[in-house]
């Protein structure tokens, strides 16, 4: 996943803020400090069907991860990450938990039901 979740978090939480010196973590941490937010959560769904056929401009969607809206609560984010039962394509839900840490790009991926799809 790399820094892709941080790009989505920044775009949703602080629209218009551009990473300074390419450091997304620093910009996102500053936005959190300015708003008094201790953690952010981003629900994501992985799909074994892979990335989108054509680029969308969404850092996660282009890599095959659907996502919901950023929230400040795990309880609010988790239901958005629950996969819907559809056709024959397995989906796996998780929540990205971001805690501001200066310029560092640290986040946790919390799988729901203890399962994530394998990525090659």
3D structure, described in words:
The protein has a four-stranded antiparallel beta sheet, covered by helices on one side. It has one domain (4-114). It has three helices and four strands. Helix content is 22%, strand content 20%. It is globular, with a radius of gyration of 14 Å.
Mean pLDDT: 79
The side-by-side strand order for the widest beta sheet comes to: 2-1-3-4
* Shape, per Cα inertia axes: globular
Q: For the terminal residues, how far apart are their CA atoms?
A: 11 Å
Please report the total strand number as a whole number: 4
Give the biggest beta sheet: 4 strands, antiparallel
Number of helices: 3
Helix/strand order, N-terminal first: HHEEHEE
Question: Roughly how many Å is the radius of gyration?
Answer: 14 Å
Number of domains: 1
Low-pLDDT regions: 116-120
Estimate the strand proportion: 15-25%
Helix and strand composition category: alpha+beta
Q: In which range does the helix fraction lie?
A: 10-25%
């Amino acid at each position: 996943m790399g820094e892709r979740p941080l790009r989505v978090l920044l775009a949703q939480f602080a629209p218009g803020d551009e990473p300074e010196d390419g450091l997304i973590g620093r910009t996102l941490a500053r936005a959190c400090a300015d708003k008094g937010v201790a953690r952010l959560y981003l629900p994501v769904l992985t799909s074994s069907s892979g990335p989108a056929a054509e680029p969308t401009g969404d850092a996660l969607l282009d890599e095959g991860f659907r996502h919901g809206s950023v929230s400040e609560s795990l309880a609010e984010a988790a239901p958005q990450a629950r996969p819907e039962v559809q056709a024959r394509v397995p989906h796996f839900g998780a929540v990205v938990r971001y805690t501001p840490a200066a310029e560092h790009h640290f986040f946790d991926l919390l799988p729901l039901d203890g399962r994530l799809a394998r990525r090659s």
